[in-house]
Design brief:
- The chain is an alpha+beta fold.
- It is built from 18 helices and 18 strands.
- A 4-stranded antiparallel beta sheet has the order 5-6-8-7.
């Protein structure tokens, strides 16, 4: 059993600071009422306090309140197909619509929800041993011969008798999976699709809303979110050994902070779940993708209860306010944990370099990530004073958009590039541009953010190994959406059709369901020594040797998706990798495919 421990003094300090912010928001009249807009008849004054060389300077920045829509436009009747809008990825009424790709997306969605998401409802790798031939054959038949969503009803075999282990549902992948569910539901709803299909998609989003809440509520501390969650008792991470948050004296455990320790429920509400702490920036930005994507679709939709919407807003508000707290080192934008400490990779502040502070660093990569996370979370929370923090301080005073444009530290490192950083950059570009308030006053900010995505991230002048050439569908579609100024409720004003075509080509080549983690050995040692090899489909590959990140074997050009080594999230995996391991037992959830495909179907042109 979990023993209750006394919280540390740092936990109490953080809780007090967060309580102060929440009380201040209530004093300012910023309610959690959710779906209504605030009065935007006049601008709002924010007071920004900065400290330099022990001198405190107070400045006033006028930032108009964000005008958010309040009127629900009913979609066409289900089953009518009576819609007129078009999307980045061709819709069913378009002559360019790819019906085969939609059918593939359906198989991947069904695998995701019936099998991978069985444990938590969110993204998770699943394991089916090779010796379970009957069960593996049943999975293949279910996905290729049926169109239902219930594996046991189809096969007569329980999911828990088929899958022996589930991995955790981590924010970096779980959030995009939830956003994909929302975009799928919104697309079907707004196109008057089959009534049963819309209802199933809605149920998936309702489940996501619940699990997104569990991911933060289970920590027991408002504003703290788990790195990942698992369903207790199921094989895999659900059987992980847990550690209390504190020892008998109230000291946090483990004594030396690490990149994730499994914990039992700390809220008293979710005893059937475990959570892993030390949420890092790549996990937090993934959760932000999920929160904002879900909110965009359900915000005014009367099919979702108001109490669930208010709870989602309250969770988002608590998280974003925790980031506004100035820590004991004098900086904000730090990720807090339930044991009162910062997480292992906690810094989003522009004065940080990885896990250390360097005053004046002007880290544009962290600047963009911070903008994306704060914009996304407050898009959900809808708090005027957080708008002031975002636009008055981060944008106007600290100039984070310009910093991201001019000083993108640590992103493009040639063969040594870390594609987790690229994935965060595109997550951040998507979030910052799409969920910043899109009005005349903030137009120059969005223009700068478009410049950031196009010229500092997607296609950097003078650089080789550009994302624009890499066949990463999510990168391509973020570029298209931002370049076209697409925001919620606003069409893309222009469309880079070549980039859309590249995105679609990769999705067409993406592994179909069932997606097993099979080994890929395109080049043997003799070919590697020669520098040239021929892949199994006849594609010539010129290898550079073991010069990639962590001494990985990489090619001189992006490897086509059809012959890439397997990955549980391709958009944060090096697209130049040649070979990869796998024993065929892991069933990969393809949240990366789902996010890119349904984002492309949802964003309008």
């Amino acid at each position: 059993m979990r023993a209750l421990r006394s919280p540390s003094s740092r936990t109490l300090l953080f809780a007090f600071s967060l309580a102060f912010w929440l009380a201040l928001s209530l004093a300012l009249g910023s309610s959690l009422a959710g779906c209504g807009g605030d009065d935007t008849s006049s601008g709002t004054t924010t007071t920004t306090t900065t400290t330099t060389d022990s001198t405190t300077t107070t400045t006033h920045v006028e930032v108009p309140a964000c005008d958010r829509p309040t009127i629900w436009t009913p979609p066409p009747a289900c089953g009518s197909g009576a819609y007129a809008w078009k999307s980045l990825v061709a819709d069913p009424k378009s002559p360019d619509f790819d019906a085969s790709l939609e059918q593939k997306a359906s198989r991947i969605d069904r695998q995701f929800h019936a099998l991978n998401g069985f444990a938590t409802g969110l993204n998770a790798d699943a394991t089916v041993p090779l010796e379970k031939t009957m069960e593996r054959d049943a999975i293949t038949a279910f996905l290729t011969q049926d169109d239902g969503w219930d594996f046991e009803s189809f096969s007569g075999i329980a999911v828990t008798d088929t899958i022996t282990a589930w991995g955790q549902s981590p924010g970096a992948y779980a959030g995009p999976g939830a956003a994909a569910d929302a975009f799928r539901y919104g697309t079907l709803r707004d196109q008057g699709a089959d009534c049963a299909a819309i209802d199933i998609a809605r149920q998936h989003v309702l489940a996501d809303v619940e699990t997104l809440h569990i991911a933060t509520a289970i920590t027991g501390v408002p504003g703290v979110i788990a790195r990942g969650i698992a369903k207790m008792g199921l094989g895999g991470d659900g059987l992980a050994e847990t550690t209390p948050l504190f020892d008998a004296s109230g000291a946090p455990l483990p004594a030396e902070k690490n990149n994730g320790t499994w914990r039992e429920d700390n809220s008293g509400q979710y005893p059937d779940y475990l959570w892993i702490d030390s949420c890092s920036r790549d996990m937090l930005i993934g959760w932000a993708v999920g929160y904002a994507g879900v909110w965009e679709v359900i915000r005014l939709d009367p099919a979702f209860p108001d109490d669930l919407k208010k709870r989602l807003q309250a969770d988002s508000e608590a998280i974003v306010r925790s980031l506004m707290v100035v820590g004991d080192k004098g900086y904000d934008l730090e990720i807090h944990d339930a044991d009162g400490r910062l997480t292992y990779f906690p810094y989003l502040n522009e004065n940080a370099i990885d896990t250390s502070y360097l005053e004046g660093a002007q880290n544009g990569s962290l600047a963009l990530i911070a903008l994306g996370i704060v914009a996304a979370l407050n898009y959900v929370a809808e708090q005027p004073d957080v708008d002031q923090y975002l636009y008055g301080q981060l944008v106007t005073e600290r100039k984070l958009p310009e910093m991201a444009r001019d000083n993108m530290i640590g992103l493009s490192l040639g063969t040594k590039s870390n594609y987790s950083n690229y994935n965060m950059a595109f997550d951040a570009g998507w979030l910052a541009h799409r969920y910043m308030c899109d009005d005349e006053a903030r137009g120059p900010v969005l223009e700068t953010l478009r410049d950031v995505v196009q010229n500092s991230v997607y296609s950097r002048p003078g650089d080789d190994r550009q994302p624009s050439e890499q066949g990463q569908s999510f990168y391509d579609l973020v570029h298209v959406a931002t370049a076209g100024s697409a925001t919620p409720g606003k069409l893309a004003t222009s469309v880079d059709e070549a980039a859309v075509s590249r995105a679609l080509s990769t999705l067409v080549e993406f592994p179909d369901a069932p997606f097993w983690e099979l080994p890929r050995q395109s080049c043997d040692e003799a070919e590697i020594a020669s520098g040239d090899c021929i892949a199994e489909d006849g594609t010539p590959i010129h290898v550079l040797g073991y010069v990639g990140r962590n001494d990985a074997l990489v090619a001189d050009a992006p490897v086509p998706m059809r012959i890439r080594p397997p990955s549980n999230y391709f958009w944060r995996t090096d697209p130049y990798l040649v070979n990869g391991d796998g024993d065929g037992t892991r069933l990969l959830p393809a949240a990366d495919f789902r996010m890119a495909y349904w984002m492309g179907r949802w964003v309008r042109r």
